[in-house]
Amino acid sequence: MTDHPSPTVDVHAHVLLPEVDALVTGHPGLTAARELDARRNGPASLAVSGPMVRERVPRLTDVTVRLAAMDAQGVDVQLVSPSPSHYHYWADEETAEKLYRLAGEATAAHCARAPDRLKGLGLVPLQHPDLAVRALEHALEQGLSGVEISSHAPGRELSDPAYEPFWARAGETGAIVFLHPFGCTLDERLDRWYLSNTVGQPTENAVALSHIVFSGVLDRHPDLKLIAAHGGGYLPTHIGRSDHAWSTRADAGAGCAHLPSSYLRRLYFDSLVHDPHVLRELVRAVGADRVLLGSDFPFDMGTEDPVGALRAARLPDADFHAVRGGNAAALLRKD
Q1: pLDDT of residue 2
Q2: Is residue 254 in a domain?
Q3: Whether the Cβ atoms of residue 247 and residue 218 lie closer than 8 Å to each other
């Protein structure tokens, strides 16, 4: 462990769960989902992604390898979430229940190998809102800190009233909800040059957070502890447009009580924006107490040096240390 006044905490790190892959192998729903994924990403991106993931399997599965990589990065604690490829929102209710239970138990077992350094998150089958509370409670029963969700499920946005019991229970329990998109509904428009990720992920973040803000989820559930991956995508740095619409149009202002920008300070955001100027603007927009270190460990769209990326933003010393780990340490103590 490094000698800091507070630990360095990376809230955006993933684990690959072979048990989940084995559960869904051969299911016709998986075939259809992979065909959609192939169309969305395009052949050139798939040709790069396959070898990239295979090369990273040891870091995604072996705790000893993970800890060595963390030491090299100067990271003391990771909040580990399942790879978003494990969402499988196509799954029927019976399969989905098996999946979230298996994912939660496997993630908890991975983290139990180094409990002082690894905290974990489970999964919620957003395609079955009636299972959401049960999935959250199962994750907490495993000793996990909360759950990871995508930006939407087929036919459902995060503003859907069916998720109200989930938001309520997450707020009551103090569970962390990590919003991490997987796949973008712009589909084949983004099937070249890895636009499916570079444009798709921040777009999905912005859409999902806008649904949460404009529908009043945060008015009804002020205790919700939601962390948005990828710095919240485009929303925090373009929130002025949302404020203008809320102030100008009756339809835009109908669902939430306050200016959209005010809700940014009720959310948390990771630091993974790949640009020190954007990171400074994120801190300005949401507050230094709402930004948490994130690396997307160990994928290629992450950063190998999250602390160095944070240092490049040249934040005031107190803000640097808050983002480096102070904010996340406080949040994890409350989970």
Answers
A1: 44
A2: yes
A3: no
